[in-house]
């Protein structure tokens, strides 16, 4: 007999469905409450630890008072010319943040939500190699010194004073005594010694960083709060190298020396003394699809950052990132040129955002890197005439005008044209296909079978793959533009859109014909890592295999010349060699075109660009405009 679906069955179905939904909701609420309770337990434990530390400190003060040994003057270095404090309590590094905190509208709270255009492979310091990871790390890890964005001079952060010997080989830093890591452990000179030793340990996968620190002979602790850096030879960037080293907590990172591969393959081992921290300093993984930092409740700094949280969402698609910004789900959007012109006319968006358009004083550059192969197996790009020809075939002016809509400038070299490093006698190679063809003919490339494609003496066509990040629409347009441009000269470009993690692997293995990427820049650019012959192996950043003994010699001399007036001509001679060698085709320096939510206050432009990523943090949201809450 056939069973019919009755009203009673329907009622039972509805009841069971509602019951299932209620169970799921209950489980969700219990899970949220459990998470909140765990978080509250952790905060309460931290507060209890802090109370114990405070009671210990009070008992120590009481004991000193009883023994008549209290000394009100806590610093004997206040007369030093480089004393890094505004007064006894506020280090010079916090000068700007203190001014911000005194603004009438200043308020703590809210979140700053941003987006990454690609997913991070790892956030572990030293192991990570991209700018996105370093953007996160600078909020978590601190250094002895930072640059003042107004004067570009070094000012003390962890260091309260420092001294440089007459020969420039010895740097002595005296540390603040009140700095603690985010887990409450005190920071001392021992952590700085450990950081250097950890970097120089060959079992740690830090070849890029280690290449710079090889200039140092030793780092030693004179006492708990005095550390001495000894250099093997004069180095122009010695103060930057020593003072800018991100300090690693010995108690946290030292256990990984027992099994270095655990550290080398880790994804999110991140702990420091900075104003923000990972909730779990060992628990971040790329599959989370975001990075979230919480305010460090133990932060030692006299001025606390305003935001409760910093959040970066991974949104690899440009269009999706714009949509997310339009919906108010992220606070900052770096616009592409065509978008920027359109968005300026968007009345609704203009009403709730502020826009910024500028060429950063420290703007980096994009480039095409030509893999020269090895001594045993040179590639077609090993001959500098081929590289010169490829630059002549690259119409950079049209790229800037037609794709970037004028929001950029042709890059001549790694050095900014506004830098003292720049050789003013040099100018960028223009678009000259006839010069390119003449150079290629010298090498042996001709259209031997009248098919419109150049062939070498063996009849092999001139073709190569160009690797680029698949998530960037502007880069895709540039590559397709170049494909057509090169084809007109008989050169076949095969576009290779690639995921970011795969690109990093290809760089490490030097497994590409050509690749387009970008380098960030600074106040003065040290080109050793990218172009010195010694950096072609062991994970160095000279992944194009550039080797020129004359350039090596000039780089070495420039780095060893402390006097700026003598150093700059050496950089300029280096630039002339790179201009001739063309290890890269230097494409452009791009303007920044950014839209930022009106909630964000105290946005300023400095000599280092916008104060968006400064630590100490200078941005805040007035109370009435805040939208997120912990």
Report on this model:
By secondary structure, this protein is α+β, with helices and mostly antiparallel strands. Among the domains are: 94-295, D-Maltodextrin-Binding Protein, domain 2 (3-Layer(aba) Sandwich); 365-590, Dipeptide-binding Protein, domain 3. It is 35% helix and 17% strand. The chain has 19 helices and 21 strands. The strands form 6 sheets. The chain has a 6-stranded mixed β-sheet with strand order 14-18-13-17-15-16. Strands 1-10-9-8 form a 4-stranded mixed β-sheet, with helices on one face.
The CATH superfamily label of the domain at 365-590 reads Dipeptide-binding Protein, Domain 3
Text of the CATH class of the domain at 365-590? Alpha Beta
Rg over alpha carbons: 28 Å
The gross shape turns out to be globular
Unreliable parts: 34-38, 51-87
Structural class: alpha+beta
Annotate the secondary structure layout.
Layout: H1 7-66, H2 95-101, E1 111-116, H3 131-140, E2 145-147, E3 154-156, E4 159-164, E5 170-175, H4 189-200, H5 207-213, E6 216-223, E7 226-231, H6 238-243, H7 250-253, H8 260-264, E8 276-277, E9 290-295, E10 309-314, H9 318-326, E11 332-334, H10 337-344, H11 347-352, E12 353-358, E13 365-370, H12 384-392, H13 396-403, E14 408-410, H14 433-443, E15 463-469, H15 473-487, E16 492-498, H16 500-509, E17 514-519, H17 528-531, H18 549-559, H19 564-581, E18 584-590, E19 592-597, E20 605-606, E21 609-610
Parallel strand pairs: 1-10, 15-16, 15-17
Antiparallel strand pairs: 2-3, 4-5, 5-7, 6-7, 8-9, 9-10, 11-19, 12-19, 13-17, 13-18, 14-18, 20-21
Helix pairs in contact: 12-14, 18-19
């Amino acid at each position: 007999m056939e069973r019919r679906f009755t009203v009673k069955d329907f009622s039972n179905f509805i009841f069971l469905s509602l019951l299932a939904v209620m169970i799921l909701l209950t489980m969700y609420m219990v899970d949220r409450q459990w998470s909140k309770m765990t978080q509250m337990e952790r905060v309460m434990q931290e507060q209890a630890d802090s109370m114990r530390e405070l009671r210990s400190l009070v008992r120590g003060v009481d004991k000193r008072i009883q023994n008549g040994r209290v000394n009100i003057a806590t610093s004997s270095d206040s007369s030093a010319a480089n004393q890094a404090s505004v007064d006894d309590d506020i280090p010079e590094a916090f000068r700007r943040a203190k001014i911000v905190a005194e603004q009438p509208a200043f308020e703590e709270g809210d979140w700053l939500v941003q987006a990454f255009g690609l997913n991070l492979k790892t956030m572990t310091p030293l192991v990570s190699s991209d700018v996105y990871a370093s953007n996160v790390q600078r909020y978590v890890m601190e250094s002895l010194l930072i640059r003042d964005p107004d004067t570009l001079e070094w000012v003390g952060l962890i260091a309260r004073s420092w001294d440089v010997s007459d020969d420039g080989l010895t740097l002595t830093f005296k540390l603040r005594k009140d700095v603690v890591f985010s887990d409450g452990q005190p920071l001392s000179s021992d952590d700085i010694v450990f950081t250097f030793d950890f970097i120089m340990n060959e079992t740690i996968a830090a070849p890029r960083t280690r290449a710079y620190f090889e200039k140092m002979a030793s780092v030693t602790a004179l006492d708990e709060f005095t550390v001495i850096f000894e250099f093997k030879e004069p180095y122009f960037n010695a103060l930057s190298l020593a003072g800018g080293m991100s300090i690693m907590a010995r108690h946290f990172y030292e256990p990984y020396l027992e099994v270095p591969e655990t550290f080398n393959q880790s994804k999110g081992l991140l702990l420091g003394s900075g104003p923000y921290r990972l909730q779990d300093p060992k628990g971040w993984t790329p599959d989370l699809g975001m990075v979230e930092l919480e305010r460090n409740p133990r932060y030692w700094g006299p001025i606390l950052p305003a935001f409760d949280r910093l959040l970066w969402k991974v949104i690899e698609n440009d269009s999706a990132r714009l949509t997310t910004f339009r919906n108010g789900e992220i606070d900052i959007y770096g616009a592409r040129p065509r978008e920027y012109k359109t968005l300026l006319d968007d009345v609704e968006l203009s009403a709730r955002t502020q826009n910024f358009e500028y060429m950063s004083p420290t703007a980096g550059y994009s480039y095409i890197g030509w893999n020269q192969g090895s001594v045993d197996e040179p590639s077609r790009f090993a001959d500098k005439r081929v590289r010169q020809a490829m630059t002549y075939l690259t119409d950079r002016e049209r790229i800037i005008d037609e794709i970037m809509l004028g929001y950029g400038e042709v890059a001549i070299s790694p050095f900014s044209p506004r830098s003292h490093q720049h050789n003013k006698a040099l100018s960028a190679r223009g678009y000259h296909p006839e010069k390119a063809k003449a150079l290629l003919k010298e090498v042996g490339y001709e259209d031997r079978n009248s098919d419109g494609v150049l062939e070498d003496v063996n009849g092999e066509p001139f073709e190569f793959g160009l690797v680029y990040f698949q998530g960037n629409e502007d880069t895709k347009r540039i590559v397709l533009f170049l494909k057509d441009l090169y084809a007109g000269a008989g050169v076949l470009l095969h576009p290779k859109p690639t995921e970011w993690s795969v690109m990093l692997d290809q760089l490490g293995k030097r497994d590409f014909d050509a690749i387009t990427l970008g380098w960030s820049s600074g106040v003065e650019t040290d080109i050793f890592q990218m172009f010195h012959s010694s950096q072609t192996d062991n994970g160095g950043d000279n992944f194009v295999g550039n080797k020129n003994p004359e350039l090596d010699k000039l780089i070495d001399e420039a780095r060893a010349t402390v006097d700026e007036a003598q150093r700059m001509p050496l950089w300029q001679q280096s630039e002339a060699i790179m201009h001739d060698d063309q290890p890269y085709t230097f494409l452009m320096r791009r303007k920044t075109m950014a839209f930022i939510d009106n909630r964000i206050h105290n946005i300023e432009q400095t000599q280092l660009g916008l104060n968006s990523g400064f630590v100490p943090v200078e941005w805040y949201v007035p109370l009435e405009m805040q939208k997120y809450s912990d």
